[in-house]
User: Fold Pectin lyase-like superfamily protein from Forsythia ovata.
Amino acid sequence: MEFMKSFRQKGGAQLIVPKGRWLTGSFNLTSNFTLFLEDGAVILGSQDPEEWPIIQPLPSYGRGRERLGGRHISLIHGDSLTNVVITGNNGTIDGQGKMWWDLWWNRSLKHTRGHLVELINSNNILISNLTFLNSPFWTVHPVYCSNVVIKDMTILAPLNAPNTDGIDPDSSTNVCIEDCYIESGDDLVAVKSGWDQYGIATSRPSVNITIRRVSGTTPTCSGVGIGSEMSGGIRNVVIEDLYVRDSAAGVRIKTDKGRGGYIRNIIMRNMTMERVKVPIRFSRGANDHPDEKFDPKALPKVKGISIIDVVSWDSRKAPLLQGIEGAPFEDICMKNVRIQGLSPVYKLEL
Assistant:
């Protein structure tokens, strides 16, 4: 990779984490830096909420995604960085998220939970060859970033852990996600670009996103989701060689009134699904908004979606393509899509 050559030429620091279990609170990365976990190395997120300090909300969200005001910082954090590598010989970073999930389930969460890894306003990022476990919230969140590669990753959370998305590129450009296995309580991969009027005002789209050879399961959400926070716009996304099993949806486009923005030029091809409830779903999201100031007349524009070479076995429902009143989806092409439903015998056993 070209930026890795630049990294070597400029010099930089490397932190090698040896075999063992290492407990830590949130920490910041720096530019021209490699975090390397050796085989058997485990970084554990602290169970003390005070070691996950509160930071300002993202401009494109206007508030914490779950609660008003600020949000907890991620376990591994970086802002305005260049040339950063997070890698290793299959080491592990474990967010120990159960404490945070319990706060969410008990409705006693005061601030939005932190991510496992969040990089902001950064470029030339590589995340590879590691296992990420039990993130409190979305696992990997590059936001306002460019030139990001996430590859050869295993990302796991209990299937009932709330909102534990695997990888969420957000208002970012030139992102490649490949050869990853993900199990989570939410979308395996979700492409985002801001929330309602804050995302519209920030106007930072997600552009040139490639997602390939990703596999996994999520019982409540989708293999790849686009939105629902997409108010800054999303375009030029390629999803290919996707394998999803035992999930609520295979691929989903989620929008809503008040979102504004656009989703266009999306290619989905060569996807295999097994026991997925709705293999292809385009519909409204959860009708959630940051505050009462959103404009219900700000309607998203969805145009130019190609879905090619799809096989879905033991599907429970047909694909759902449902636009928004006043904002119909346009130019949707489906080619060589095969959907096989459950057998009558199996239906009788339910």
